[in-house]
Every structure is written in C-alpha cells, then in structure tokens.
Design goal:
This protein has 380 residues and is an alpha+beta fold. It contains 8 helices and 12 strands. Helix 4 crosses helix 8 and helix 5 runs antiparallel to helix 7.
C-alpha cells in the first residue's frame, strides 16, 4: 500500500489559549499519525476523490485557528489541536477531512477556489435558503443588509456543496456520513461555553447552523448526491435573476395540489417507545427544495426548522432540534403525506416511527417566518 506523507508545519506564534489542554499543542504521536494516514488512505479509495497535493498537520497554529481546518490550493490544513478535538469520534474526523477534500474537488472542477469562481452552479436548496436570507436582511437592514447577504451567498453554496462531496466520499470509503451531523452539532454545543471563542473561526468559516445540519441529513437520505458541475460563466446577479424567474414559474405551475406549500396537521407515532403525538407543519415556497417549521406536541419532542426535497411523489425532509436530527421520508397522496422517520439522538442512540400529515390550507400564516420556528421550549 502506498504511504502518503503527513507534513508537520510549525508556525511561530504567541502561546495558545489556556482553555485548550497543554498536551493538545504537542506534535502528533506515531499512533495518531498512523490512524490519520489510515483515514486518508480509505478516503482516497472513494470514487471521484480529488488529488490532494498535501495533507498538513499544523503545530503551533495561531490561537484563533487551532480548532479549525481549511483547504487552499488543493492542500488540506488541520491543526493538531483540531485532531485532538475530534479524537473520540474518528468517523467525524473522516467527515471533516472529506469536507476539506470537497473543496479541493471544487478546485478541480472550477480551476480555482469555489469562493472566487464565476461558474459555480447553485442548487435549488442553495437558492431557496440564500434568497430567503437576502429577503430577511433587506427587511431588517435595508439595502446594506441585502448586499451583505448576497455577498455571502456564494460562500454558503460552496460549503453546502463540499458537504455533498463529503457525504459521497465518506459513504464511498465505508465511513458513516451521518458523522457530519455529529461534527457540526459538536460545534453548536460550544455556544455559550468557554470554548465558543476558540471555535469561532471554524463556526464562521463553515456557517454552522441547524439548516446546514438538516441539509446533510437530506443528502444522506439520497443515494445519489446532487453535486454540481461547472457551466458557462455566469455572474451571481444573473444566476439570481434567472433562478428567481424559474422558481416563480415553477411555483405558479405547481399551485394547488401540485405545490407542497401550506399548513399541515397530523400525528407521529414513536414505535420505539409506543408514544403518539400531534404535529403541525408549515412549508413555504416549494420548487424541488423547501423549508418550513414543525411543531411536535407532547409527549414527544423534535420541534424546529426543517428543510427538504420533493421528487415526484417522494418527500424527504429533516429537522435539527434539541432531540437530535429527525429524518422524515414519505409518499405524497393527494393532500396527504405518509411515511416513516428516524431520530438520530445526540447521545448516539436512535428511535424510529411513522408519521402522517394532512394539508389544511395551501396558504401560509401571515406571520410565518422560517427563521423563527417554534422549539421544544415553546411547544407543549
């Protein structure tokens, strides 16, 4: 088996923050380096895996970059502190490396960084989420806010796309792609702790949020990932105008029974614990991707923001909630959606069950905001 060198870079900087254990700053031991090599070698066997020029394990990285990872010019950089941060979940570490390799794959496709490429193709999910952010920013901060949101759209798309490649690579290499959800949830859980500032750069670079975690769950539910390829160079504004026009046409053509938009009510039955609860769902503007809110009433939990996709009669969506990640998969029958769900708990456990929804109306509540969904503290 061919061996691939892991290059140790030493960067002169000020002493690391005290919150990070002192031994985390030391160069990796032989066992740590060997396990990292094995993960990389397995990933390299995955179909379509890019040619990563070098894997760099950094010693004495700047304080604000120690709990982080990044890719530049087809080289992947991982500080030794980050390796230790995920040492208890090697599957999550594999997803992290696969995600950064996803950015290297983007460079192969676009000939440059995805962040600067002019021929990046946005998926329906990306446009739906990004345009919602632009509209929300415009409503709260006017033209300046909308401009800032527009500038962040491409970064967001590149991160979502790298997640799609990571799911493909980890699955193809025999790893568990759901470890990506655990990885990002681990960073979410740092909010409000002493570690929050240490991980701030990673959270900022990687846009950690519930919708992204739910998006990974949706990606995992599909055997074939919706990976984009380069197309003729088109500016962001031109793509936005074209996509907005196409979405408007699709929404019009799918009105009435064809569109998923509207309010739903129904029930979920948890087969693991033999419990049943009422649920309310609101789904906003839908083409192939959609977003919305779900309220799961007692005695069950799982309320929050949802995102998903519909392909003909198949409807798949996921929710990132206090209960964990909930993946729903169902079939559409007229005004009804029926199917099954799986709960991926934060402690590593799982639960299963069935659900059914019936549409009450195809209009949205006047105060509906997909960014302000109810949670398990507000739903009873």
């Amino acid at each position: 088996m061919k061996r691939y060198a892991l290059i140790l870079l030493v960067i002169v900087t000020v002493p690391a923050l005290a919150q990070i254990p002192a031994d985390w700053h030391q160069p990796l031991g032989e066992q740590e380096k060997q396990s990292t090599r094995e993960i990389i070698e397995k990933l390299r066997q995955a179909p379509d895996f890019p040619k990563v020029e070098r894997w760099n394990l950094i010693v004495n990285a700047p304080e604000n970059s120690q709990i982080n990872a990044w890719e530049t010019n087809k080289q992947v950089f991982v500080p030794v502190e980050m390796v230790r941060f995920v040492k208890d979940d090697q599957q999550a570490f594999a997803f992290l490396l696969a995600h950064e390799a996803g950015h290297a794959k983007q460079e192969e496709l676009y000939g440059q960084s995805c962040y600067t490429a002019r021929n990046v193709r946005y998926s329906k999910f990306d446009w739906f989420r990004a345009l919602a952010d632009v509209a929300g920013a415009a409503a709260t901060k006017g033209v300046t806010g909308a401009g800032t949101a527009l500038a962040n759209m491409q970064k967001q798309v590149c991160e979502d796309n790298a997640d799609a490649w990571a799911v493909k690579f980890t699955r193809g290499a025999g790893f568990d792609p759901s470890a990506g959800m655990r990885l990002f949830e681990k960073f979410q859980q740092l909010h409000g702790t002493n570690w929050q500032q240490l991980a701030q750069q990673f959270s900022s670079d990687h846009s950690i949020e519930p919708v992204r975690i739910a998006h990974i769950a949706v990606l995992i539910s599909h055997k074939e990932q919706p990976l984009d390829v380069p197309r003729q160079s088109t500016s962001v504004s031109q793509q936005a105008q074209s996509t907005s026009r196409n979405d408007a046409e699709a929404t019009t053509s799918e009105s009435g029974s064809g569109s998923l938009s509207g309010e739903y009510e129904g029930q979920v039955h948890n087969s693991t614990h033999e419990l049943t609860a009422n649920i309310d769902v609101v789904v906003s503007r839908e083409v192939s991707a959609f977003a919305g809110c779900i309220a799961i009433h007692r005695p069950l939990y799982g309320s929050g923001e949802l995102s998903g996709e519909s392909r003909e009669a198949q409807v798949t969506f996921a929710v990132s909630s206090l209960a964990g990640i909930i993946k729903f998969s169902g079939q559409r029958e007229g005004e009804d959606i029926k199917g099954t769900y799986t709960v991926l708990q934060k402690d590593g456990g799982s639960q299963v069950g069935e659900f059914e929804l019936h549409r009450k109306t195809n209009t949205l509540p006047a105060d509906f905001n997909p960014k302000k969904c109810p949670n398990d503290f507000t739903v009873r």
